[in-house]
Amino acid sequence: MADVKIEPITRLLIANRGEIARRILRTAHDMGIDTVAVYADGDANAPFVKEAGSAIALNGRTARQTYLDVDKVIGACRRSGADAVHPGYGFLSENQAFAQAVIDAGLKWLGPAPEVIGLMGDKLSAKALMQEAGVPTLNAIEITDATEPAEAARQIGYPVLVKAAAGGGGRGMRVVEDESGLEAAIAGARRESGAAFGDDTLFLEKWLDHARHVEMQILGDRHGNLVHCFERECSIQRRHQKVIEEAPSPAVTPGLRQRLGEAAIAAARKLGYSSAGTVEFLVQDDDFFFLEVNARLQVEHPVTEEIIGHDLVREQVRIAEGEPLSFTQDDLAINGWAIEARLYAENPERNFLPAPGTVAVWRPAEAGQARYDSGVESGSEISIEFDPMIAKVTAHGLTRREAAGRLARALEATEIHGLTTNRDFLVATLRTPEFLAGDTTTDFIERVNPPRRRAISGTERIEAAVAAALEGQARRRARARISRRVPSGWRNSTMPWQKLAFDIGGETLNLEYQSRRDGKFRMIADGGDEMLVEAHACGSGRVEVAIDGKRLRFRVQPQGDDWFVQGRSAGLTVTQLPRYPDPAGEDQGGGLAAPMPGAVLSTAVAAGDAVQKGQLLLILEAMKMEHRITAPRDGTIEALHVTAGDQVENGQLLVTIRAEETP
Description:
alpha+beta; 8-stranded antiparallel beta sheet; 8-stranded antiparallel barrel; 33% strand
């Protein structure tokens, strides 16, 4: 191979946003490289924009208007004086035309060659190439105008996976159990892939419903050196998107690891691969089948970094500069275990629907000694325009059980308030006997069904209410204009009992308290036994209290009628209820409201139509995914309040259904 000229990078533009932009910034700054961020309108005050050396507005709101606009990003490169571009993952990271445009502009591209991206971007072409390289693949049939989908599905054998040829991140994918669902799955996948990738080419592939999703991290340089950095398992998924990843895999034996590594290197050599990439496989028992090559850095790369002790972004920078890899295959060894969980703004109780909103409080935990890769801070907005991931949290341990325990504890102690997240579901998953036993096949969520919501004990509710009440009382005393220095409860007469009502997790808790002359409080919760409560510190967001001698510490922050209370367990939102009910509350009766903000893609019913429970009413697009809104009961459509193309807000009335009358 010809000599490769070493050309140091001095200013790196990061063509991405959120946590991955911050992740790349961190390594670039450590290497002494100046950085440039680009941003959409809604990201103007995001942490990654503030932390970059400079930032350039892309002047748009949506992904298509900003991070997916090749001309705008290349224009930002020219304006910034950057000499290199890192695409992160998603957006333009696997766009051949963008990679070529970067190179044509005289910039270094931190990724594989554009030709390789093109080969791997079409999953059907990738399969054919891997077959030439001797890598096992699953049978697949492209859906063209000449294809009879039902016959193709029968030929492959149900269940089948409808899959976008240009897809990724679970978009444009549908599992079909039998012929009755095939037509709708193809239509939905075609719409979604066309919107997300600008290419609606689909194919059918055999779906292995009890397999494991195992991938091999690869690295290659421009000197012809190739290594794999062992495997990651990413089998725990919802809507074909990964939720928990780990390295190594609990199911991969040394022999299977060697075979997977050899297959990954064979694939990389066939492609002439350079930079970081991932070869993905489905593993069932001792067999494995090629899925795809992700020609970019993966979301879950931190677990690999934790077990090998090397910074993969640093290697990408060095490779782009012309340096050889800083290690060989023989230098690599697996050190302990690492597990990563993706913390999303979503509602597990509503089939993991996205739940955008404001991150009122964000404070990573010290417990568990976890690594946080986040794109947020307190006050950040999770909008409907982009992926709802808040952060990736990774824990490392000498054993898998230790890593799982550390990660569960770190998540539990993380302060995240103001919006609905999957945190409780992640903690429950990590503590299931099945997860701890390594029984993590792709059907894990459906088969094991971890609790979607944490059970809150009566004691925990009472303690949270006490903390909120004391913090509120202390803040009111601090704002008092008179008798500010007089201890609470010091009066010539006996003070009456104060009464408060709180909503905690959908249940009402009534708390009565009376301050004593010695500064302590008498409290009664829901008519129970009287408690003696002593406040050691409160009023500044930190509450230290003794309840009948039991010492507890809380962090408490108010927002409107809500108190965000963080104790030794996962935090609670304690909502102070008004003394009198709000007469403006209105029951929508048979109305069906939008579960999230989004855009109406299509409607399937009209006023007067009779519908059955489960029947499709309309399709809502939000956070780059399609969501089917179905009838919750049998009845008749009384009114359809939206049409295709409408933008709707969370809770907006979509359809009114008149229930069938019982004879």
